[in-house]
Design goal:
Distance between the termini: 28 Å
Largest sheet: 5 strands, antiparallel
Low-confidence stretches: 1-6, 11-32
Helix content: 25-40%
Strand content: 25-35%
Order of helices and strands: EEEHEHEHHHHHEEHEEEHEEEEEEEEEH
Structural class: alpha+beta
Number of strands: 19
Number of helices: 10
């Protein structure tokens, strides 16, 4: 029979606590909860590893996204790569429709062939609408079918304020919209689960080669993300602008183990777009601390009653992270392991055996499941005979 719960407490000393004593570029110090000086009507600042929101302003307001639409296009591309449906060496042929895209483009010609790797550079660096449509057609057969996948993925991610009409952001339809919060969500999904995207978004300039019926020519991809040269911790991600959307930006940056996503929508001009993103990122690096427990310590096995084995090994589900923006003393975090004294067979590998809770000043700040690391079947009469016989031999 189960005999209650036993607990033990462990003071956790190893953590990452990053707090800047002053803001970059000698800006005045700020504290969490303070207003960030931004001019854009809709913004959000998210810590990437936890998904915690540090600052937001009208973040669920539906707005035209322009080319930050391509974040979802890139997400689906990298997910297809991970699933083995496509590869970076795939030869992508440009259709007449893809080559006809206006706006931001890399001037791909009908019938031109580029590797998928090059096409991703064209999207991530120069925001090529023609490259986006060519990749969409390569993955789904048509842009229409690809957009259906985009909307399906948005729904799966809980992006309630998003609907796509195209894969590149050219549409000025009222039915093509998203919000700063939803952009942060898909930006996080892309960057956390597919960090190879940074191999592309950190590129400032790179040449590609056009090979068409007219001959061979070089074309220089130039990044639309000017923050790469203005803010040293910038890692990406995507800009966008149309007359309807005005100036938009999903900016990512990394410093001292802190990864941030700042989304700016509806900025009046490109300078404001970059200035607001930098202000948000700087604010975030100033106020963020992260408590991390890798949960690598060994856990005691659990006694199993009535099973084919007397004990079952257990393990943590994973690491624990906690985002603090209040300036708390994270050395005071307590770790409390809660496991039953014994469990009844059968137990299934992967099932929850208990939980480890984290307390700060007596208040729970989160928890992580403890799982069975192996299965133990329920013992039958023959198992007991084998056990008795084994003892007799000993």
């Amino acid at each position: 029979m189960e005999c209650g719960i036993f607990m033990f407490r462990m003071k956790k000393k190893s953590f990452l606590a990053v707090g800047m004593a002053f803001l970059l570029f000698f800006w005045p110090a700020q504290t969490a909860g303070a207003e960030v000086a931004v001019s854009s009507p809709s913004v959000i600042l998210m810590e990437s590893s936890t998904g915690g929101i540090i600052y937001e302003l009208n973040s669920t307001e539906r707005r035209s996204p322009a080319s930050i639409t391509k974040i979802m296009t890139l997400l689906l591309t990298f997910e297809a790569l991970d699933a083995g449906k496509i590869s970076l060496t795939d030869q992508v042929t440009v259709s007449e429709y893809a080559s006809s895209m206006g706006g931001s483009q890399v001037y791909l010609a009908q019938g031109e062939v580029q590797t998928l790797d090059t096409m991703i550079k064209c999207i991530a660096v120069s925001s090529g609408n023609d490259a986006s449509v060519a990749v969409a057609e390569h993955i789904a057969g048509s842009e229409e079918a690809f957009v259906a996948l985009m909307n399906q993925r948005a729904e799966e991610l809980g992006m309630a304020d998003t609907h796509f009409e195209d894969c590149c952001g050219l549409s000025d339809s009222d039915s093509h919209y998203t919000s700063a919060r939803d952009v942060a969500v898909m930006s996080r999904e892309l960057t956390v689960n597919h960090p190879d995207i940074f191999n592309y978004t950190k590129i400032w300039m790179e040449d590609i080669t056009h090979e068409t019926r007219q001959g061979t020519s070089n074309f220089t991809l130039s990044s639309t993300n000017k923050l790469l040269k203005q803010y040293q911790w910038t890692t990406g991600l995507k800009t966008g602008s149309t007359s309807k959307a005005k100036y938009c930006f999903s900016a990512t940056a990394s410093k001292d183990g802190i990864d941030l996503i700042a989304v700016v929508m509806g900025a009046p001009d490109y300078k404001t777009r970059f200035g607001d993103a930098q202000a948000l990122l700087t604010y975030g690096f100033n106020v963020c601390d992260i408590y991390i427990d890798a949960n690598q310590d060994a856990l005691p096995p659990l006694p199993v009653e009535g099973g084919t084995a007397e004990n079952a090994a257990v393990r943590y589900q994973g690491e624990f992270r906690y985002l603090d923006i209040q300036g708390s003393d994270l050395t005071a975090v307590e770790k409390v392991l809660e496991l039953p004294e014994a469990v009844q067979a059968p137990v299934q590998e992967g099932a929850e055996a208990g939980r480890v809770r984290y307390l700060l000043n007596g208040v729970e700040i989160g928890s992580t499941p403890v799982l069975f690391a192996e299965s133990v079947e329920k013992a039958v009469y023959g198992d007991y005979l084998k056990r008795v016989f084994g003892l007799f031999l000993l």
